[in-house]
Amino acid sequence: MDQSIPAAEANRSFSRLLREVREGQSFTITAHVRPVARIVPCDTDVEATRQAARAVLMARLRAQPAAETTERTWTRDELYEPD
């Protein structure tokens, strides 16, 4: 779970925050009590993250209906643009 920390405190103790993040801790930085940023450990397995993102994207695309097609069919000659 994230620990909330004011921006001024995060600025004063940034090195300590980085050490704690390296150990797995996450922080939510706040400004005037409102969350503005998160500091979280870096994902070292970039390929796994990329594959997971691709899987989510493909699932979303499969769930979307195909774009509507026009009733007009084009011939090859109509699509060809002479020089």
Average of pLDDT: 87
Secondary structure tally: strands: 3
By helix and strand content, what is the structural category? alpha+beta
Low-confidence stretches: none
Task: Write the H/E string, N to C.
Answer: EHHEEHH
Looking at the structure, what is the overall shape?
Answer: elongated
Instruction: Please summarize the sheet with the most strands.
Output: 3 strands, mixed
Gyration radius over CA: 25 Å
Percentage of residues assigned to helices: 40-55%
| Beta-strand residue fraction | 15-25%
3D architecture notes:
There is one protein chain. With 83 residues, this protein is α+β, with helices and mostly antiparallel strands. It has helices at 7-12, 14-22, 46-63, 76-79; strands spanning 3-6, 27-31, 34-39. The protein has one domain: YefM-like fold (3-Layer(aba) Sandwich), CATH 3.40.1620. The chain contains 4 helices and 3 strands. A hairpin with a 2-residue loop joins strand 2 and strand 3 (34-39). The model has no long low-confidence stretch (mean pLDDT 87).
